[in-house]
Design goal:
alpha+beta, globular, DUF397 domain-containing protein, DUF397
Amino acid sequence: MRIALDLSRAEWVKSSYSNGNGGECVEFAPGIATTAGVVPVRDSKHPAGPALVFAVAAWTSFTSAVRSGEFPAF
């Protein structure tokens, strides 16, 4: 099933893991989670581009894994 999600008024927050020199810049819209139950994520260098949308539980699992160091650093 495909559901249209209007992100035109979403308030985006840059991840604290994004670096400040134009590299790995990820933004997410936490306010959407309270209204739609999903967390949109996008590349901050391309704000008009597509956003990936994750279920809140999946996003929480992912961010917890990042914080605990479960992913290798490059």
